[in-house]
Amino acid sequence: MGNEKSASTNQEFKGIRALLWPIHNFELKKFLPMGLMMMCILFVYTLVRDLKDTLMVSSATGGGAETLGFVKLYGVTPSAILFMIIFVRLANVLNQEKLFYVIVSFFLAFFATFGFIIYPMRGILHLSQETIGTLQQSMPHLHWVWPIIGNWSYALFYILSELWGSVVLTALFWQFANRITKVKEAKRFYSLFGFIGNFALLMSGALIVYSANSAKKAAELGLNGDTFGQNLRIQMAAVIGAGLLLIYVFRWMQKNVLTDPRLYSPDEVAKKKAKLQLGVWESTKMIFKSPYLLKIAMLMIGYGISINLIECIWKGQIKLQYPDQNDFNALMGKLSLTTGLLTITVMLIGANLLRLFSWRTVALITPVFLLVTGFMFFGVIMYENAHGLSANLLGVTVLFMAVVVGLIQDAFTKGVKYSLFDSTMQMAYIPLDPEAKTKGQAAVSVLGGRGGKAGGAVIQSSLLLTVGGGVSLASMVGVLSTIVFAVVIIWIAAVVGLGKQFEILTKDQQKEGKSKD
Question: In the chain, what are the domains?
Answer without folding.
Answer: 28-272 (1.20.1250), 273-512 (1.20.1250.20)
